[in-house]
Queue: 4 jobs
Job 1
Amino acid sequence: MSLIALSLKGLRRDLRAADVRALFLALTLAVAATTMIGFFLDRLDRGLTRQAGQLLGGDLVLEQGRAFDDELRETLREAGLRLSDQVDLVSMISQGDAFQSAGLKVVDDGYPLYGEVLVDRGDGIEALAHGPPPGQAWIAPRLARLLEVAIGDTVQVGSASLRVGGLIDREPDQQGGFSGLTPRIMLDRADLAATELVRPGSRIEYELLAAGPPAAVEAVSNRFERWREAGIEVRDVRVDRPSLGRSLERAQKYLSLAGLAAVLLAGVAVAMATRRYVDRHLDTAALMRCFGASQRQLGQLFAWQLGWLAGAAAVTGALLGLAGQAGLLALLVRFLPLELPPPGWLPFAMGILTALAVLVGFAGPTLIRLRRVSALKVLRRELDPIPAAGWVVVGMASLVFGGLLWLYSGDPLLALGILLGGLAALVILAGVAHLLLGALLGALSRLTPTRGGSRAWQLGGRQLARRRQASLGQLLAFSVTFAAMAIIAVVRGDLLTTWQAQLPTDTPNYFAINIQPQERDAVETLLEENTKSTSGLYPLVRGRLTAIDGQPPQTRVPDEHANDGALRRDLNLTWRETLPDGNEVTAGEWFDDDAAMSAGGDVPISVEEELAGRLGLSLGDTLTFTIGSDSVTGEVTSLRHLDWESFQPNFFIIFPPGVLDTFGHSFITSFYLAQENDALLGEMVREYPGVSLLNVEALLEQVRGILTQVTRAVEFVLGFVLLAGISVLYAALTASRPARAHEGALLRVFGASNRTLATMQWTEFALLGLASGLLGAALAEVASVGIFTWLGLTPRAHPTMWLIMPLAGAVVVGGIGFLLSRSTRRHSPMASLRLLGET
């Protein structure tokens, strides 16, 4: 108890010291940054994932070939989810003598769960939060033109006659993929029985859409695998919307990387502040040893003292983080127009745990000096205790940061790779920093002395040389700081560039399918003459995978993918002589020019790598596809990576030319059509009435909106990292302030003017910043290669960074150091000399 009381008394006294205030601020910032980023990322990630799920029509979408039972519905309702039933099928729609194949979308009273349907019911486009009433059908304008019907006319849907009540302009859950490319007709669930289209053997898809808070979806997530085993497809935005899912995955990785960078920088700030704290308490510890204190008692005393400080900083920082994320979201309301879930407790606990880990890892090894101090230091002031070896400090900090990296990323191999690579880079960086510092000081020593600026410049360089070891430590700390900030800024810029390139203004907004072979040349010419960009025409053949290596597919694929959708539906097959744009061969080789048959009589085929992974396929496997009453077998000779973000036709399976030509096929293409060229659609309808068009502009707008929100989040998280970087500069410069004031006082005693001192101090800090910026640029360039690969981006050089960072380092470090040293230049020499013994 006496140690606890003594620690509190000592802490109250120490709060007057600049280094303790810097340590408290560094710890507070560590907690505030981690909790603020944690709360923000947690809520933003759950909110964005939830909104992205709305592209599928709900937070959870279940699909199967038969109606859902009441037990499953009751499970979802008990979890707090709202439900909506849909039935999708394809049928012929007629009006008089006109017939047209159309996709039927049967909805209930709960539709839509999210958003509104834009419909023209005769008085202009309206936004409605419900589907068509019983007895009516809403149809796509394309279908109206093909059947030559208008609002108020009657169309025949199976055995039911329904009145056209409106023209669909946009659906909130418009489906992508080729199954949704037929002209749409929407009707009420009550009219389905009257159509008599639901019969044994009919190809019908039943969908059950659910919406609710994230906790409700999480409550039933443990049943997903059981449902999949029962043949129910559980749809997810990262699978069913790969173009958006990849962007969300990259954003999540970036935000996690930014949070880790903030933790690292806060840890460096804690280490810098702790060093001054220990140096200032060495005399106190030595005096206590003279009065009989043991090493254990000293260790407990200072552990309690810093424990109280860490506890106060943790609580203060956590509250600031909670308030900060609320203020941040308030500022982002106009940029993030989505409902975010309430904050959870996990980021709060993680922030406090991270701060304690940072204190132990980055400050603990240095504090060992206090308990090992010798009583002789009271008599022989030059006799300092041997400091803890640098590798012990670095090793402990590295282990703690590696553990945090593992905790945040969930990937032990990634954490180990970054940790080992970081330690190797630190060793190399220390050697390069030593050489660079020596080169800078050597260059300054060769300046011709004058009474003006060069003399002050030389004095500034000598200050660095006099404290070579301390200067080297600061140089490494600043280099890591600038590198971390540069990496986050560079990755942010390349992410935004990737997203902007992903959805340029001429991204295809229309798909055209059912183009017959005799129409191919004419349609291709029409599109090339009237559109800004087109993907070209791809042949399309529908075939079902019926055997892998001569065995039923379900017996060959991994158990967890036995109910994969690729095994339960027809796949879109195509042939191609050259590798399509946006495709990259990752294994094997593309077809030879002659695409010769293999020795076994099978033809070479190319398979998309993710599908191959799900089905357990590898090079040399044979796949048999049933097309109509015939079948064709191919041998996997290459695997491809697809650019799902291109909004162009993509295929899982590609054959060489000359294999599928004899089967019935049509063509598909995508193109960009500007709004002022809408007349082209009418011309295509008149000239080629069998061609089906789908406008995906609504989907593009939703994806662009979500990417814009992610972009704003990235920019604000970058600001947090910059704040953590500034804290490192502040902690380092504040901790060294008394020593610099002492040296400045000695120079003033010998006649140095305030101007000389100012120039000397600015030179010292500017040189330190210049070298730090140069080393930081080198470290960032090397580290960005691995990080870009981890994020799925193409690594590239950043020559501009090598010019900007050294100059920015000189200006930032020089400016902050100059400002923090201003008060010492105003003190009298005697007051400045007393700062060295500040208590």
Job 2
Amino acid sequence: MLKNWTNLFLFHIKNNKLFTFLNVLGLSIGIAGLIFATLYWNDEQSYNNWNPGKDNVFISISKIGIDEYWASNVVPFEEYFKKDFPELEGYCYFDNWYEEAVLMYKNKKEIVKFTYAQHSFFDMFPFTIVGGSTKNVLNDNTNIALSQDAARKLFGNENPLGKTLDDGSRKLVVGCVYTIPGKSSMAPEVIVNSIDERMIENKDHWGNYSYGLLLKLKNPDDKDKVIARMERLMHENSTVKNAKQEGISPEEWLKKNGITSTKFYLQSLDEIRLHAITECFAEGKGNYQFLLIMIGLSILILVLSIVNYVNLATANAVKRAKEVGVRKILGASKSNIIKQFLFETIITVLFSILLSLGIVELSLPYYNDFLGKKLVIFGNQFYMQIVLIFIITIIFAGIFPAIYVSNFETLKVLKGNFGRSKNGIWLRNIMLIVQFAIASFFIIGSYIVYQQIQYVSTKNLGFKGDQVAAVWYWNGYNWREKDYKEKVESRYLLIKNELSKIKGVKQVSTGAFEFGSGNGSTSGFSYKGSENIQARNMGVDFGMLEMMQIQLNEGRFLTNKIASDTINSMLVNETALRMMNEKNPIGKEVNWNDKKLKIIGVVKDFHLFGPQENIPPMVFFHYKTVDWMLQNASRIYVKIDAQNPSQTIAEIEKFWTKNVDTVYPFSYDFVDKQYARTYASYVKQKNLFSLLNFIVILIALFGLFALASYSIQRRMKEIAIRKTLGAETNVLLKELSKQYIVFCILGFITALFPVYFLLNKWLENFVFRIDISVLPFIVGFFALLFLTLIVVLSRAYQATKVDVLKYLKYE
């Protein structure tokens, strides 16, 4: 039986090569798209899955403003955790970011990713220990835990345990070597405990949000109790004490400082990758919306492929009507015919999946580059998902065509009456409308996405970063050293003067912030007793704002010709000025961290973080005005002449590696390119939409071409009669194409609400966004109509040129 079915299947493939190819290719592309999305989903979902405590370990997040969330916590909770929190199994203060630093062993140097954490770090992230023991490591700041990869880079095949490493300021003994079992929110190469020492120095600083905090709960359901107790302690030790010192009520103190009571949130390791309130860990957070977009669009394409397959299968069934009739006469039951056609679908889908896996394997390097990942095809979970895709595709693509064919009435089909019921025709027409709707969704959606990304990428940012190189600057200093602040400034000024002498360098300056990622320093200031304004601290050197072509609204820039500009002068941006509610700010004084600073200028708003985010209030002052601000500068900005930039960069590198930093490699980036990465993920979404749009149109045209061919083939006798009766070609073309135009319009109308609603939700990610106009819908409709007419009219025109006698000679 299977041999007979196989022979029949091969026979029909041979007679319908083109349509079989289109069917298999359409299904393969649809399945490949879903496989790509599945690989991405598996990777994002795998973060922290290896960790047995992922449901019990929480990171503390502090809400310090209306929309301001920090993945950090105040220091002094530690003594209370030990005695007043029975719900806790453990806690760990740590730096939830990496510091790239140099480790030296003998004559070998390696740049590695450091994390500083308390001893209990391994209780929160129980990495696999391959050498040594966690019992004797991270007890103080004299020992070190190394990842196996870092150990191999530094020691090769030598046993690292007990060996001494040098980080430039101290000696560190290797206490253990670990590997990370899977994707992890923290994946450092080196772990050192310098936290305990810093905690002692900050034990009374209830406003110090400098540390990440992990809490391990005995029962995850107790997190609300822990949060309530933390908020109460914060209120008592910060708000109440500060208000008492000023002789006012806690409510008045909060209002005066423009803040609300600090709120805490606890999010578990299980949810933190895709559902974090803010960036919490060094490995970043996943883009949950982008993941849903990938899954949703991939499912849409697979639905389109399946609908396409079903349409073609039911249309092709007419050609096999006599075969079915003969088989029924010979005794084949309805179930046998259903099994036969399901068997053919199984073979087709199996071959499509194999082809789709080939497409994925060949395209995976480009896909990884697109996502910035290292996805591979393997794993029991993935194979089970492939089986599930296989079964679902067979169910939806195979069952209806099989039942449809099995219901042919034997006597009618043997007499030549192949017509089916109106229900079958209507169902096929509905599926064709669905195809047009999906195609409309992608065409309109891709145009809207393109408009938004074009708007973002061409928007006036308020500064110009072309030809300005941001050179990474290791601003090393030992704050325990006497006069270290003066040494930091002297080193910077020396570098600035020497860089200025290099041919092609037009200007050198620095700022304690980074374009595209903002800065980490915020402070509140008040004006005329107003509520506290939490602003970004923009410590700058002279000429920094002018070099970046940041514009003044009124007043003047900082200048070295006026001594007070390094003592008590400041500028504010337009956002801060609006919050001050002052029409004439020049010369007015504000209270900034108990310092009286005079406003000398108002800077026009510019996009520090990215054009998709709000412009925050900012204050600008010379780095000497706040003497610790220069320590936050991690970039030296160099304006380069456009004539010979590569030669200038080469000279800068030569000077840098010889005189500035002999340990760290020279690293720079042009500000405009660096800034463009702030919206790179949205550019990727645009490119993804464009690619999928092309694929969807291709699949839809495949189906439309085949379906139109079958439909017109069935009407060849009608066309021959019309031609005999004198019908002109344009009349025939109109008659043959009008139903597809109607389906095109109905599909387009069906897509209107989904595309408007979903794209409007996507645009909500942008503070600065376009309004959805009627243009994308007009362009989408005419593009769809144009493609439809090209396919249908080309097939219809060929039909009007047939030999009439061929179809009428037996009548």
Job 3
Amino acid sequence: MRIAAISFLLGVCLLQGRASLAGAGALAGAAMALVLAAAVLLSRVRLAWVGLPRRQVALLLLAVAMAVAGFGWAAVRAEWRLADELTGVREGVDLVLVGRIASLPQAVGNGWRFILDVEPAEAGIPRRVLLSWYGERGQAVALPAPRAGERWRLVARLKRPHGFANPYGFDYEAWLLERGIRATGHVRGEAHKLDDAPHGLMQRVHRLRGALRARMLESLAEAPHAGIVLALAVGDQRSIRHADWEIFRRTGIGHLVSISGLHVALVGLFCGGMVGAAWRRIPALTLRLPAQKARALAALTGATAYALLAGMGVPVMRAWLMLAVAVIALLSGRAQAPSRVLAIALLVVVAIDPWAVLAAGFWLSFGAVAVILAVLGGRVAPPRGWRAALRIQLAISLALAPLLLVLFNAFPLVSPLANLVAIPLVSFVIAPTVLLGVIVPVDAVLVLAHAATALMMSWVRPLAALELALWEQALPPPWLVAFGVAAVGVLLLPRATPGRLAAPALLVAMLLWEAPRPAEGAFRVRVLDVGQGLAVHVQTRAHDLVFDAGPPYGSEADAGSRVILPYLRAIGVRRLDHLVLSHEDSDHVGGAASLLRALPVDSVLAGRPKPGSRWWPALEASTVVQPCVAGQGWTWDGVRFDMLHPSREASPSASRRHDNDGSCVLRVSAASGTLLLTGDIGVATEARLLAADPAALESTVVVSPHHGSRSSSSAAFVDATLAAHVVHAAGHRNPFGHPHPQVWARWAEAGTRNWRTDSQGAIEADFDADGDAGVTLRAQRIERPRYWHGR
């Protein structure tokens, strides 16, 4: 079973890494036919010539067959899910939808976000969509609060799933695919509630969760950590503050404050223990059903109730399935090795959810259970009590380090110390008190749970503030990660295992690895996919510059925290030499505050502020800011940087709401070519630059002015650049129509190749130190395509 489960998992992983499903089913069918033919042939001939015993050949055939089965099953499931799609003619137009709210609605700013199960009406509309509903600007009347299970008739504008595509970034499209959400959109105009009664089990559960959330919010009022209590009670993780999430990230206790396998297992153990203790004392019950099996059934029942209360989301369902497999194995009456039960659980989870392999929680959950089995199993005298708990925590912190580096480019060094207090508090005080508060509608119980939560935060907050709380580094290559995983596997073996003392050397090699950087005289640039905004990273051999910081994504998120910082951490950038903010439009400075809080920045260069600007004083309050001025220049590692605009005499326009023509314009030059970063300049500034020095505009790669707006990229400017490539940084289906078709055509007619971030993802350009080598460009969605992209 262990070989079969791992082989099935491998086949699923191979399918999820494909760029297309074309031919996947035929490939799987042909491979399975070959395996069956080989099995029949080898069962009838002698295997002496092979040099392997018949059993080993049979296991090899089983492994291949299960891998093919996993590949084929994942392909079939993917085809089924992708068939439920939004057709092109229905994208971006007003549609009348009738359906029921199938999730716990989330408050977002002045509106709501929820999943709608659409009733069958017209072909080409998916069955499940994610909708945002915002009030109109200046509207005095608040939107009605939607509840789970309600049936609504509304007008919505939908689009196919689309997310940012950046190196090492989060794949939002895969996240939607796993949850069966096949379109996103927003409500337009009026909406009418048709029916208030929920329909089906999960809609009733979500209605109950909504009522519990409302009661708890009323009870805790303005309590600072109310979001953590809500997350433990009803799985509403969006209520947790961003600052608290950062503390959890730096201390490694995020798994304790969101309903996970640990909480599901704890509730199961508690319910099973209570029922088992009472069951033994009633002989009539014991004669009908052994206490051990009664305890297992009670554990599964309690865990099921808790999983439903959490909304039975995808991560919770995985944890519940693991527990269900363990209970069924116990009820079967046959002794099963723990590793075999874990393998069965792995097979069941991947078969039910083939996209689980794309989630970090899947690998961490099964990895943690495997570590626990390795620590407690196979020993003459396994540790018990607090010694076992301490050894397990240390082993998990060590063993999961390679996985955490791959998934998050970091792992918390203070995790054992933080969990030493946090695990007992959450497991035996906070979580039980929260569940008691769910059952008993008394405010004092919830206040007590919040007090215990505040106590836990008072312990982990100083740990998170330590400079060395978190080890961060660039993503190591796969072969080095494999060595690291092997090293921790050896370290978990008994002390007398040969080669055990050499394993730490492999771990040290993995931890000391640094990402390759450009050579002397060369530089690399990435125009990141941040939506409707701009963020560009320029890297030389020893220096890093970020030009603009992208847009905000709401009150607590922006391109700095969601896109730029994860990208910089993944490639090993821990400080910035320069942060250039071209001008004060929010789509260029929205993520600046996040960058300045998270990274040391030696210098900030910014476009001149407008009279009465609120942005510039706020920026100066956190760092030292210098204005961009034409004539500024510096050289890093043989690469030249020159500021071309604004001039010292230029002054911002007091009459315009956006002073795009005051944008910083930066030229970066190497032997192989030149990059031109233009901000949001318009035709007027382009004309001034042409009049001042048209030769200075000659470039190999240009990031188009103002995202490809029709108000920029004049014919004279395009001709003067002599560019081989132009990159348009624009958002998917943005309301401005960037890049404008006329601008796209103008660049193409000049012999320039057009690139765009909305459909191609982040664009990378490598400028070589050799003048004859030229410049190489590549796009993220072209280099790493996946079958679900754009579907």
Job 4
Amino acid sequence: MTDRPILRLPNPELTVRLKGSPDRRRRPRGAGRQGQDARFGEAFRRLEEAFQGEAPDVLLRQDPSGIAPERALVFETLLPIQNFQKATARIGFELLIEDRLDDNYEIPDELVDEYVAAAAPTLYATMPSAADLQRMLQLWRAYQNDEEKPYGLAPWWQLFDLLADIRPWGPQDRLTPQAQAELLKQLADDDAVPMRLELEIWPTANRAQRNRWQTDTRARVEALGGEVVRTSSINLNGFIYEAALIDMPSGAVRAMLENPFAPDGLATIDGLQFVLPQTVGQSLPDLSDDEPDTDFGDLTPFDPNAPVRAVLLDGTPIAGHPALDGGVDIEDVHDLVRLSQVQHRRHATSMASLILRGDLVADGAPLNGARLLAIPVLVDGADGASSPDDQLFVDLVHIALTRAFLGDDPLAPEAFIVNFSIGVRGSHFAGRISSLARLLDWWAENQGILFTVSAGNAPDGLVVPNMRSIDFEDAGLEAQKAHIDAALRVARHTRTLLAPGEAVNVVTVGAASRDLTDPTMPLPAGMISLDGGEGVLTAVSSGLGLGAFRSIKPDYVHTGGEHDLRMSPIGAHLRLTVPNQYQRSGLYAATVQRGAASQYRVRGTSCSNALATRAHVNAATELMGDDGPFEGQNLGRRDLALITKALAVNAARWPENAIAYYESERARLNGNHSNAREEVCRHFGHGVLNEVFMREAPDYGVTLIGTATIRKDRAALFDVPLPPSLAGERLGRSMWVTIAWFSPVLATRARYRLALLEAVPHGTDLLGNLIEDQGWNLDMRARELDANIIKRGTVWSRRLIQDGPIVPNYGQGAVLPIRVQCRDNSGGGLSPDEEIRFAIAVTLELEVETQFDIRSEIEDLIRVRLREAG
């Protein structure tokens, strides 16, 4: 219970979306019918000749690099084609990928004109049959003859106009640069040594076709001396995953990497979409051989009747540990517990400890009104925990979630949050959304589950160029931070989020380098601490954003233990690493040492993610507790997930050093505000989480929370009563408005996230007409994040400020109108019947204490309104 409970917004009025102005920019022109015939006519003529002969399917398949039935056909265009998915379906094509190509895509000279700057090169991958290809040839002929476009097929004319390339999906697509680099890293010198790979088959809706491709894949693998270890087929409404786990001789893998286009090689199997290193989920705990610390103090026991509100996917925790006993249940869905020796069960034990009790020394209180369910998906070993090497990790996670939430007897029917403090080895985000991230996105939207995912850690250390240890140590704190910022900027493309942190519906948590207790000893020689100065530093090892589609990732950062750094020279340069087996700093969590239950200091994004999960669950309990906005109600899973997601981002703030970093980046980037903000978001996201603000209003402010459901092109209008005492007062004030939702996703769309929600600031004139009011009746201006970057994810959060010179002027009964509206972000993928549930959090805060309390005034006004409405 708190002294300043969060208030509940009255139900909104449902209305229509206000549409913006259409984009009237001039668009790039194509090469015209004659120009396109000169470029692609020969390819279409060869295709037509093949269909005029006997056995065209056989003839076309004789060319492994040509266009053939049931071979993925790629179109590359200068611009995305509106409604192209519908137009392909009309002639039988199944569109499997629509993807935005890299910014460095080389546009053919024939298509370049004065408007080329507006280009957005796009790739379409389709799966045509022989009949589909013949229909496409008919359309090409009609286009060449300047015939009338058939109804519904106009996008094909636009495609032909803007076509930059037409080709089959090939080895260059199946083997991404990131996958090649990781395979080379794992490749054995001995050609006979088997290497484990993961093959993703095209996720066509045609199950029979997927089965045929599995058969073709097995035949090719065995012909190359390999073996299929396991296959997977997940067929859900909105998520399809078809994959094979294989062993291949290292020599065959080496041959594939040296010549991916070999006709009988692995990378030329028609049914394959990607050739990848095995997806290995892993967690790397701090290790220690120290004497066990068994002084746990007086720990308050857990409530055995409390519901399970959170699920932990990790290794196996020690359920009988004094810090966990009674708080965690273990369900061995995958029969992995027996494979994890007790003395190695460190990471999951620490995660369960931080979720259930926080820092054992600084906090130790049991999770508020809730318990934890652990489902092991990793096997704990001496060097950490990792997923079983004979399993497909996507399968393991999907089965665990199915048992937790679905079926006649789900394991965690009252849980709303899943802690995923696991990263995929070597899978740093490089633009492609991983299958694991797509799976979590599907579960989040389909079942209303909030996943908290760690941003991942970069264990290799950070290289500061042309720097000696002694010079770095003598440079002073601010200079040291500047050197580290510069080094991180250079290395940021190799220190990105670990999968599945790029998922759009999840909350991705980075680590703030800070402790909740004092250091245990002086700083050892050869170590430096960056603690001190204004603000909060992010951990040097924490994975950096941005996320998919340049969305804000991490969503926020949270306490992850202070990261002292070890200095070690490498030639003329300096390497900074976060040491293992280090007990000067960190968060106190449960572990096992020398076979005994113990507590140990840990650090990293896993730790910050565990504390974030704890914050979400504690906030949910407060919401439904005494004086909470939903007192006495048992909110459903989706609402708890969305409300706490909105409250967490709404409670995040950029610290002073983040604002200073923005100013320095803006100067470095010659005044480019947007890019400077993006640079800060890579490290801080929306800011550092303030757990208190998830549960109660600020001392001089008020926080309100609401929920509603809207559809495409609809809106929900919330009227927030304005406190009468604030009118006419010269006071500094700030406002945060945050919307959280789970968007339907569609992998076949370049704009994978289908639904975009936003709050439109407006007011009314004296006649009641709607007018734009960017200050929301309080004469405030946006700060920190601009209007574009906050629209890219599934959290929309706008922060506004007014330092005080402008006095708000409004009368009795005035309201602050917040119109939350939904639009299709995908260019036609969002159904008008799709209902999007969302949560909104609003915080209004004054800079200084006043004689009046705006929270009490707004609460009274809401009560009056509810009585009048009732």
